[in-house]
Specification:
By secondary structure, the protein is of the alpha+beta class. The protein is about 50% helix and about 25% strand. The protein has a three-stranded antiparallel sheet, with helices on one face. β2 and β3 form a beta hairpin. α1 crosses α3. The longest helix is centred in the C-terminal third of the chain and has 17 residues.
Length: about 80
């Protein structure tokens, strides 16, 4: 299954929970879109997304923060 998002925080959360980042696409100069590949079912991915947006997702804050930095590095190094 492929999950796509423009949300940097959600992308970092998906990385934190073990989803594989497949691709980052720059659709326009102002936005990037993150694509994740997963062996998980759609329900499992949507559960992570819903818990993220409902502010009840628990995990490693250090890993989440490091994943944000990693994603930003990948975005800006590809310009």
């Amino acid at each position: 299954m492929i999950k796509a998002t423009y949300d940097l925080g959600l992308a970092a959360a998906l990385l934190t929970f073990g989803f594989e980042l497949k691709e980052i696409k720059r659709n326009n100069p102002q936005k990037v879109q993150f694509f994740f590949n997963s062996d998980e079912t759609k329900e499992e991915i949507e559960d992570i997304c819903n818990r993220y947006f409902n502010n009840v997702l628990a995990g490693s804050f250090q890993t989440f923060f490091n994943n944000i930095k990693t994603l930003k590095n990948r975005i800006y190094s590809s310009e």
